[in-house]
Amino acid sequence: MRTKVDTKQLKELQKKIQQFEQVGFDGLAERCTNQLASRMIRKCVKRTPVGETGNLKGNWRANKAVKRGGQWRTAVFNPTSYAPYVEYGHRTRGGRGWVNGRFMMTRSADEIERDAPKIIEKEVNKELARVFE
Predict the structure, then answer these.
(1) CA angle 112, 118, 124 (to 5 degrees)
(2) pLDDT digits (tens, 9 = 90+) for 2-30
(3) Mean pLDDT for the chain?
(4) Which of 25, 26, 35 is nearest to 62 (CA)?
(5) In 10 A of CB 37, how many CB atoms?
(6) pLDDT band at 56 (very low <50, low <70, confident <90, very high)
(7) Phi-psi group of 93: left, alpha or beta (phi > 0 → left; psi -120 to 50 → alpha; rest → beta)
(8) Domain ranges of the chain
(9) Which of 4, 12, 32, 81 has the fewest CB atoms within 10 Å of its CB?
(10) Is residue 52 over pLDDT 70?
(11) How many CA atoms lie within 13 A of 44 on its CB side?
């Protein structure tokens, strides 16, 4: 007895998988990396106290994501000269007291690290849904 196999659906699936590969894992990884950096900046800004000038709050930045050694990376930073003192704390003028740090970046990084798998999974599922429609 012979059985006929319809390979039309398998060929369509193969075509969609190739389309997903053409979109590229790198493109998806780059978008996810930049999105995580943007989220981190928003969290840092919310936690940053407003001083006399507002410079600290308004100076949060991120580099564009780049691929190095098979990993996608970016840097979130605040170039304001006194940012480390607000982040980690500092002695008062005269050196007799201590101002506690606000840990704007530290706390934000912890939250992003905790939430990253869910955020990435959502983006991957979105891309898969687009490709496999």
Answers:
(1) 120
(2) 666 678 877 887 877 777 776 678 888 99
(3) 90
(4) 35
(5) 20
(6) very high
(7) beta
(8) 12-131
(9) 4
(10) yes
(11) 23
